[in-house]
Amino acid sequence: GKTVGVNVRFQNTLIGKFDSLVGLWNDWYGDYIAIDSFPRLIIRFEDLLFHLEEVMTQVCECAGGKVKKNVALISTSAKAEGGGLLSAIKRYGHEKQRLDGMTEKDLDYAKGALNEDMMKAFGYSYPEVRVHTIFQKAPTIKYHNTTSNIVAEVGIGDPPESPIIITKNNNENHNGMDEVNSKTSNRVTTIEYHNSTNGIDAEGGKDIPPESLISISKNNNENHDGMDESNDKTRVRKILQKAGMQITPEVESVIPTWSEVTSLYGSKPKIIGLETCAAYRKSVPVTDAMIGPAGIFNTGTNLLAKLLNNQCVFPNRSEGTKPQRGMLWQVPWGKHTPVSLRLKHNHAKGVGIIPSNVLPIVTIKDPYHWMGSMCRHSYAANWPHSDLHCPNLISNEHDVFVRGEGKTIGVNVRYQKTVTGKYDSLVGLWNDWYGDYIAIDSFPRLIIRFEDLLFHLEEVMTQVCECAGGKVKKNVALISTSAKAEGGGLLSAIKRYGHEKQRLDGMTEKDLDYAKGALNEDMMKAFGYSYP
Predict the structure, then answer these.
(1) Amino acid 83: pLDDT
(2) Per-residue model confidence (pLDDT) at position 35
(3) CA angle 256–259–260, rounded 5-degree value
């Protein structure tokens, strides 16, 4: 029941502290609204989608410029966390995803804490107000003349008589316009890449250990003939219900069918390393055993740590600190650190922990989805990219920081202050980072798929916990705010990773051709990931 504060590191030595995400939004924009010492414009992101020409004209002319003819977005712009223009139009033109992940208490808090004057000034409604559209039908643009005050609607002073631009035409009459016609102004051309269940030849990558080291389910071709879509959604629906989520019509509409899930990942989870469990239990007493998550950025390591902490327990070790209970937040050498540094580096809380006592549980994600995640949150990885082209494996006209088109775009990762990894591309990073863990034969480890934490949680958690000598608690379940998938909660993760349609967002044909040839084929097969 406590307000959750937010810290933002704006610069190395400048950290902002806010009461909540609402407080961050209020304060950050409130400061810009209150400015009277220099001119500035404040525009809505949504107006760049739905009123682009009008907004661009006013913004450009405000500074003395002139807009070119044929102002338009392109299908790969407005990425909306990686989904391209169509994904942005879908997300921000409908209301159904607006409140994803929020509880009634969150909504009550937001209603009372959001700056009411700012909400009114920018035409944003509170959830209780059920209207046909979330945003006003014309853009709201506000700018400040240094000789005037701020708009009164914002609650700061009296409005000037002329220099504030406010569009008043917010009540256009659309009576009689059918839904098809009402959508024509936002229609965009899309290209769909269809997934193939056939394996595709690939070259490169590291050697994979003998087949005996890999536990793979072969039953990937379940027959769903005659099963209607509603029944085919039952299994995923139960996952959400078990997590405490109410299945509303809006939720039902985005739930993937089990056929879709199995076409992407097979019908059983994939776990590498189960044959090493007995050796681990034999060499490490259960009183000293520990489990630690590892994985490259954006692969669900935080989710795994929370699940282990909540649902796995060693005998007579249910209390105390994480090391005392044996459920670590990460392996002592650092969850994102390459395994080659296992005995050469310790993170701050890993000092004093014996590495051989820790069973690493490594999470991996479908490389195509993972590359999209890296575009949304790159963490310590550094490569030239922009919203116009990402994932960008092969440069094109949008990669302005790369000299020439058609070149492979390298990636640098700063793991530590003095340790930097250099890779040919995002594909090379995925190949090499996981290839090193797969090749390990000097100590036990498990490698699990992030997607199996969503769709096969109980089976995976049971095998992971028992591998180290622990026991899973009853009623293993995700919670609705877990598996955050870049901020959207469990439903957002189920939607993104249970459907194929967002898997290739942002990639060009040349990117796809490069990935097909460069992704380690043995690793793709071992984890049941298909080529597009």
Answers:
(1) 64
(2) 87
(3) 50
Q: Judge contact between 512 and 532, C-beta under 8 A.
A: yes
Q: What local confidence, expressed as pLDDT, does residue 404 receive?
A: 87
Mean pLDDT of 153-181: 39
Place of tokens 């256009």: 172
Which residues lie closer than 8 Å to 126 by C-beta, 6 or more apart? 111, 114, 119
Tell whether pTM > 0.90.
no
Q: How far apart are CA 291 and CA 362, in angstroms?
A: 10
| Sequence-ordered list of residues with C-beta below 8 angstroms from that of 256, at least 6 positions apart, any chain | 233, 236, 494, 495, 498, 499
Backbone angles phi, psi at 406, to 5 degrees: 85, 15
More confident residue, 404 or 219: 404
Distance CA 491, CA 103 (A): 13
Q: Which residues pair with 312 in a beta bridge?
A: 472
Q: How many Å apart are CA 317 and CA 188, to the nearest integer?
A: 57
Query: What does the pLDDT read at residue 76?
Result: 61
Helix (H, G, I), strand (E, B) or coil at 296: coil
Please give the Cα distance from 114 to 23 (Å, whole number): 8
What is the residue-wise DSSP string for 335-382?
TTS-GGGTTT---GGGTT--GGGEEEEEEE--HHHHHHHHHH--TTEE
Query: Encoding tokens for residue 414?
Result: 């700063």
| 353-372: pLDDT as tens digits | 999 999 999 999 999 999 99
* 137: CB partners within 8 A, 6+ apart: 169, 170, 171, 172
Helix (H) or strand (E) holding 460: helix 457-467
- Residue 449, φ and ψ in degrees, nearest 5: -90, 140
Cα–Cα distance for residue pair 105/1, rounded to 1 Å: 8
- The pLDDT assigned to 228 comes to 65
Q: How far apart are CA 252 and CA 246, in angstroms?
A: 10
Cis ω before 139 (30° cut-off from 0): no
Identify the pLDDT of residue 488.
64
